[in-house]
Design a protein that fits this description.
With 368 residues, the protein is of the alpha/beta class. 39% of the residues lie in helices and 14% in strands. It binds iron/sulfur cluster (SF4).
C-alpha cells in the first residue's frame, strides 16, 4: 500500500504566506481547485474575500447536499486512556472518575439515543486496549446492528484486519484525527503512550479505507499550532485519500480546543472567523466532503454556519461514559460542550434557517 506523506510543516506555512490577492481571485473561479488554490483560500490574503467565499461555499453545499444537515450523537464507552495527551481531559495523568461501560450499559445509552430519534451514532473511547478492544467493539456493534442506520467509531487506531472485522459486525465509519500534522508540535503534546507514533496515526485513515469502510473521518485539533498550515495538511490528506480510495467517503472535522481537565491552554487562538474561513476553503476545495461541526462550538456560531458549508452536526451530546443514563454526573467528561441544546432544539434551529435536519441518510441494508 502506498503511504501518505506530507511536506515539512514549515514548507506548508511558507506556501500559504506567499499567496496574494490575485491567487485568491484565481482560486475563487477555479473549476478544479488545486492544492495551491486551497493554500490561497486559507491564506491571510483571503480574509478580504470571506463574504464571497461564504457565498460560493453555500452554493456548492446546496448543490451537493441540498439543504440537509445530518444529525448524530456520540456515545462515550470508556474514558480509560493509556496515552498522555496534554490537551485532553482523558489523559492518563488526569485524576478523573474513570469507567468503561458494560455491554448492557452501552446498549442502554444507545437505546436512549434511539428513542430520541438518532439514527447515526458515534462510539467514542479513550485509547486503552485493556478496556476497549476489538472483541468489545464487535460485541457492541452486533448488539446494535439493525437498530441504527449507521454506527461509527472513534477509538484507538487499529489494524486493517481489525477494521475489516468491525465492518463485518456493522461498523460503517471510523473517525481518526491526526490532532496536529506538525510533527514538532505532535511530539510536544503527545507525552507518552502508543499515540506518540505520529506516522502510525497518519497512516490509519488509509488502513480504514483499505478495510472497505464506507467512510473515514479526518481532522485536526485547532488551537495547537498554525491553523492555516493544519488546513493545508488536511486538504493534502483529503485529496490523497480521494485519489487512492475513491470508493470511501471522507469527512473532515474541525475540533477547536475546549476547556478540559488538566487545564491545558490553547497554544494559538483560532477565532470563529478563522474557523469559518477554513470551512469555506475546504468546501471550495472539495465540494463532496462531509464537513462536521460538533457541539464543541457554541449554539450561536453553529446556527450562524447553517447552510454555509457544514453538513453534519452533533446534538444533545454528552462526553462522559454513561452520561445519557446519568446526566447529573459530569465528572469524567472529555471536554465541556459549547452547545448544550437537545436534539429537538437543534432540529428547530436548523429548520428555522430553512435547512432540513436529517437523522438518517443511509441504511445498513445498503451495505453488502
Ligand atoms: S486525546 Fe485520545 S488518546 Fe489522547 S488522552 Fe484523550 S482520549 Fe487519550
Amino acid at each position: 500500500m502506498t503511504l501518505f506523506s506530507l511536506p515539512d510543516f514549515q514548507q506548508l506555512q511558507q506556501t500559504i504566506e506567499r499567496c496574494t490577492s490575485a491567487d485568491v481571485e484565481q482560486a475563487l473561479i477555479s473549476r478544479n481547485p488545486t492544492i495551491h488554490d486551497l493554500a490561497a483560500l486559507i491564506s491571510p490574503a483571503a480574509e478580504l474575500f470571506l463574504p464571497e467565499m461564504a457565498r460560493r461555499s453555500a452554493l456548492l453545499t446546496a448543490q451537493r447536499f441540498g439543504k440537509t444537515i445530518q444529525l448524530y450523537a456520540p456515545i462515550y464507552l470508556s474514558n480509560y486512556c493509556t496515552n498522555r495527551c496534554a490537551y485532553c481531559g482523558f489523559s492518563a495523568d488526569n485524576r478523573i472518575a474513570r469507567r468503561c461501560l458494560t455491554l448492557d450499559e452501552a446498549e442502554t445509552e444507545a437505546e436512549i439515543l434511539h428513542k430520541r430519534g438518532f439514527q447515526h451514532i458515534l462510539l467514542v473511547s479513550g485509547e486503552a486496549e485493556n478496556a476497549v478492544d476489538v472483541e468489545y467493539l464487535e460485541a457492541i456493534a452486533l448488539r446494535l446492528r439493525g437498530r441504527f442506520a449507521a454506527v461509527s467509531i472513534e477509538v484507538q487506531p487499529l489494524s486493517t484486519a481489525h477494521y475489516t472485522r468491525l465492518f463485518k459486525a456493522g461498523i460503517t465509519a471510523v473517525a481518526v484525527y491526526q490532532e496536529t500534522y506538525d510533527q514538532k508540535m505532535y511530539k510536544q503534546v503527545h507525552l507518552s503512550g502508543k499515540k506518540t507514533d505520529y506516522h502510525y496515526r497518519l497512516e490509519t485513515p488509509a488502513r480504514v479505507a483499505a478495510a472497505g469502510m464506507r467512510e473515514v473521518g479526518i481532522g485536526a485539533l485547532l488551537g495547537l499550532t498554525d491553523w492555516r498550515a493544519e488546513g493545508l495538511a488536511l486538504g493534502l490528506h483529503l485529496a490523497w485519500l480521494r485519489k487512492n480510495f475513491w470508493s470511501t467517503a471522507v469527512t473532515v472535522s474541525f475540533p477547536r480546543l475546549r476547556p478540559a481537565a488538566g487545564e491545558f491552554e490553547p497554544r494559538v487562538i483560532v477565532s470563529e472567523q478563522n474557523l469559518s474561513q477554513l470551512i469555506f476553503a475546504l468546501r471550495l476545495f472539495d465540494p463532496d466532503a462531509g464537513l462536521l461541526l460538533s457541539t464543541r462550538e457554541e449554539a450561536r456560531y453553529r446556527d450562524g454556519m447553517l447552510g454555509l458549508g457544514p453538513t453534519r452536526y452533533s446534538a444533545g451530546s454528552c462526553t462522559a461514559p454513561g452520561g445519557y443514563s446519568h446526566p447529573e454526573q459530569t465528572d469524567g467528561e472529555q471536554f465541556s460542550v459549547g452547545d448544550q441544546r437537545t436534539m429537538e432544539e437543534v432540529s428547530l434551529a436548523i429548520a428555522a434557517k430553512g435547512c432540513d435536519p436529517v437523522c438518517k441518510d443511509w441504511d445498513s441494508a445498503f451495505q453488502t
